[in-house]
Amino acid sequence: MRLTQTLGHVELAESCRQFRDARRPGTRLCRLATMATSERQREYLREQVEIAVRGGYLDEEEVLAFVKERVEDELRTSDATEEFLAYARRLLEEHRAEEAGWSGPTTNDAIDRAFEELNRQGIIALQNAGYTLSDGWDDVAAAKAERYEPVRGSTFFHGQDVERGVLGMGLMLVFGSFERDPKLDEEASLAIAREVRETLARHGVETEWNGSVKTRISIPPFPWRKRGKRAQAADDTDTGSRFERVLRRVCQEKGLTREAGIAALEAFVCEVAWKHYGEGRCLEAQYNPEQEQVELYQAIMVVEQPGDAVAAVNQRTPAQLGELEGDVEPGDELVFQIFYRKEEAYLAQAQDEKYGGILDLKTFGRSLPSWTVRELRDGILGHLPASAR
After folding, report:
1. Is residue 242 within 8 Å of residue 373, measured between CB atoms?
2. Whole-prediction pTM value?
3. Ranges of the chain with pLDDT below 70
4. Domains of the chain
5. pLDDT in the model for residue 385
6. Closest Cα to residue 363, out of 296, 312, 309?
7. Among 19, 67, 237, 357, whose CB has the most other CB atoms within 10 angstroms?
8. Which value, in Å, is the radius of gyration of the alpha carbons in the chain?
9. Cα first-last separation, the chain
């Protein structure tokens, strides 16, 4: 890959100082050094614009937003923004015209089809996943969390790979398994690599690999012809919160009524909460269809005298209720919402400060796990009546 390095402020200042010490008329030399640096920056930015357009992973609006941000970040000014935006628009127009002339499937089309097949086979296959290797694995983890069907492993290439691909240097594919047993992981990963190569070969994509789990799969250089990103109609199963999406899928899969699915989901969340916060607590989970979230509540009964240790977990005398004492009397039931999601940490903290003593429960820093789609599915199915599973 061709990389154009730019000088930072410190290096540039040092360069000017050395020029100045060597020759007295150093002002002109510093200006020349700055001009050279600026031209290298502009060359680098032009290349970045070309990669963004030809890469094919951004639509026009996204390309222009990327160009604006990159130019102003690199040059520390907006003076050249319109110039580079105009350049991007021209390249986008040229790319559309060029794409219209492509006859037959391209290598990129074949990679698209192969990755679609891999995804259907339980291997998460991602293109342009983040910018670095670690970014890519983060994207894989996020994709895995949203997968309804079971998955066995992953393959992907990241943003730096795309840059090399666009510049005619081929692609490098990462691979790995989701095997939990370390003793079995290497062989499982090698099996994933072989399956990736076989699938690509069926679609006419040549690969090279030395058979080592430590070596990435290589797609030799090929003409990069990735079709431009187009707006796609949203799939109804992919909209809504994770709870809502899984509910729809489970009800469809098992032929359940929505009420049955919600009841099982509530039972699953409540069981996990009992184990996490204490099984003696009087907890209730309720699905909020407007927020598309499962809300969790604890009930406290106001009593004149607490009962045995088990019952006392959910009982308080008026004197134990602090500022609420004057507003309640024995026989009243107080219901408190428990904020258990990581996204609600600020609410959990406020709840702890105000009612943590009454509840004898602090949830800040003790959120429940963020369930993956597959975990939610299994949780719902595990809490259905046996006849409905």
Report:
1. yes
2. 0.75
3. 1-37, 230-238, 388-389
4. 9-100 (no CATH), 107-219 (no CATH), 242-388 (3.30.1480.10)
5. 87
6. 296
7. 67
8. 29
9. 54
294 phi/psi in degrees, rounded to 5: -90, 120
Q: What residues does 125 pair with on adjacent strands?
A: 155
Tokens of 15: 């360069």
Q: What is the pLDDT of residue 26?
A: 47
Cα angle value 317/318/324 (rounded, 5°): 135
Are 243 and 265 contacting, i.e. CB atoms less than 8 angstroms apart? Answer: yes
SS (H, E, C) 134-196: HHHHHHHHHHHHHCCCCCCEEEECCHHHHHHHHCCCCEEEEEEECCCCHHHHHHHHHHHHHHH
Tokens of 221: 């250089």
Distance CA 20, CA 16 (A): 6
For residue 332, which amino acid is it?
A: D
Buried b (16+ CB within 10 A) or exposed e, 206-235: ebebeeeeeebbebeebebbbebeeeeeee
d(CA 285, CA 40): 60
Check residue 20 and give its pLDDT. 42
CA nearest to 157, candidates 145, 167, 170, 146 = 170
pLDDT at 389: 63
Query: How far, in Å, are 14, 16, 34, 36 from residue 27 at the CA level?
Result: 13, 8, 11, 14
